Amino acid sequence: MTEYMTMTADAPISRSTAIKLYDEAGFAGMRRAGRLAAEILDALVPHVVPGVSTQELDDIVRSMTLAGGGVPATLGYRGYTHSCCISLNNVICHGIPGDYRLKEGDILNIDVTPQVDGWHGDSSRMYIVGETSIKARRLIDVTYECLMLGIEQARPGNHLGDIGHAIQVHAEKHRYGVVRDFCGHGLGKVFHDSPEVVHVGRPRTGPELRPGMFFTIEPMINIGKPGIRLMEDGWTAVTRDRTLSAQFEHSIGITETGCEIFTKSPTGLDAPPYVG
Ligand code: MF3
Ligand code: CO
Ligand code: CO
After folding, report:
1. Class of 20-261 in CATH
2. Whole-model pTM above 0.85?
3. Domain boundaries in the chain?
4. Which family would the database say this protein is a member of (predicted)?
5. pLDDT (0 to 100) of residue 13
6. In percent, how much of the chain has pLDDT > 90?
């Protein structure tokens, strides 16, 4: 049985197996953190150009996070030493920023998590360097649709399985593979909390959604099979069959009637093409 715990001002901020239900103060905190995440992802758009290194993008994320009154939650997280993850082409997630310079046609996910007053705003988007192939663009479009179809299912009375099901059906309709090895997660003052938000599933299964639940939805979709391979650095996850992979992530909170997306772009730059 799923356990829930109501969060009061003095409630513990540690990881729990019970699902935390937050109050209005929690929504206010997540709004600030989510807003900063979205502003950082917005501000990166003009910097994603041929020749820029992924480390330079990480530097921008770090300085924007600090300027916005936050701290990058990934810095020092389980030994990770960067301010964001940058996952290129066949990298599924947790790509480490470094010396690689972007080139025309690359597709990449940038995943940021500013922590503001202890609250975590976790979000990622895909970016395209110049122009890319039709098949890469189609993968990006469908992956964003998967995220939004999942979010459409996020309302009280529905179950986590309804979210996974909506994502899986849409991805597989396009013959894409849904990654099973990584999932979305509860968050709040804890970066990765319960529940696990799996991106496949059956309707009416899994924990029931209740007002006050905060979690991410972050489907990783491969052109080929779902299988992953972890690289020697212990972080970078790539597609086992070397096909392209895409991901989008929002942090949301369940309300009385549906959900609030904490990490929505204030300027409409939620998905490419990012043209004004
Ligand atoms: N932001 C990632 C997520 O969506 C987590 C990155 S943890 C790191 O959950 F250590 F790899 F940065
Ligand atoms: Co996340
Ligand atoms: Co993330």
Report:
1. alpha beta
2. yes
3. 20-261
4. Belongs to the peptidase M24A family. Methionine aminopeptidase type 1 subfamily.
5. 86
6. 97
